[in-house]
Amino acid sequence: MLDQPYPDLQIEDQTGPTQTAWLQAQLLRFFSPLFKARSAPAALQELGKRRILCTLREGPSGVDGINALTETLFRRQGDISAGERCYRGMPIIILRNDYNLGLFNGDTGIVWPDHHGMLQAWFPQAEDAIRPISLARLPPWQTSYAITVHKSQGSEFGEVLLLLPPEDVPILSRELLYTGITRARDALTVYGRKELLVRAVERRVVRYSGLEDKLRDQRENNEARRH
């Protein structure tokens, strides 16, 4: 860990054999409470406390890789049975709007049995209420121990672990870091190489639409007419 003066901010630049062990320990710490919860509301509350944010969707350090690694760890511990696709305590995120169900892209829920023992997807509603929806009725969804920074927009979590990619990619920018950092309410850990973090801070997304040129041309034309 790099030296840093802020107790609510950590920057982890792990390399070598300690890298995998450190990350696995964080995944177990973040998500063990989901499997220890005694009810769907309690599990949803725990899910809102901590989240892994990735800059990429694919690869070992992306959403797909981290979700797969997390499931592997909890299968080893016996919290997830072998061969189970859906299981008690599984966090999910909706990938497409379904207006009939009132579910929208980015909504997160938890898989939990109802009073009949049937697994349902439970989603928060207004005034701390939750509602179950049959897994068979859900629009496209995926596991959500980790989500992309993009998908996290509009959400807030008590603690965030922000994973940088192992190598530089164009999407890694100051704007992306800002979005990820501001998702954390109480504590943030940035996990990745220091030089990539510095490079991301220095890189800004340039959105060129031609609007500035058009406005400048219009202003110059108006001034020319006056003269």
Major sheet summary line? 5 strands, parallel
Radius of gyration: 21 Å
Percentage of β-strand residues? 15-25%
Look at the structure and give the mean pLDDT: 86
Straight-line distance between termini: 65 Å
Q: Which structural category fits the helices and strands?
A: alpha/beta
> Total number of helical segments?
6
- Overall number of strands: 10
Helix content: 25-40%
Q: Write the H/E string, N to C.
A: EHHEHEEEEEEEHEHH
Q: How are the strands ordered across the major sheet?
A: 1-10-9-2-8
Q: What is the overall silhouette?
A: globular
Q: Which regions have little confidence, pLDDT < 50, spanning 5+ residues?
A: none
Q: What can you see in these coordinates?
A:
The strands form two sheets. A five-stranded parallel β-sheet has the order 1-10-9-2-8. A five-stranded antiparallel β-sheet has the order 6-5-4-3-7, with helices on one face. The chain is an alpha/beta fold and 227 residues long. It has helices spanning 17-36, 40-47, 63-76, 174-181, 194-202, 211-226; strands at 9-12, 50-54, 91-94, 108-113, 119-124, 130-134, 141-143, 146-148, 157-163, 184-191. The protein contains six helices and ten strands; from the N terminus they run βααβαβββββββαβαα. The protein is globular.
Key words describing this protein structure:
alpha/beta, 6 helices, 10 strands, five-stranded antiparallel β-sheet, five-stranded parallel β-sheet, 227 residues
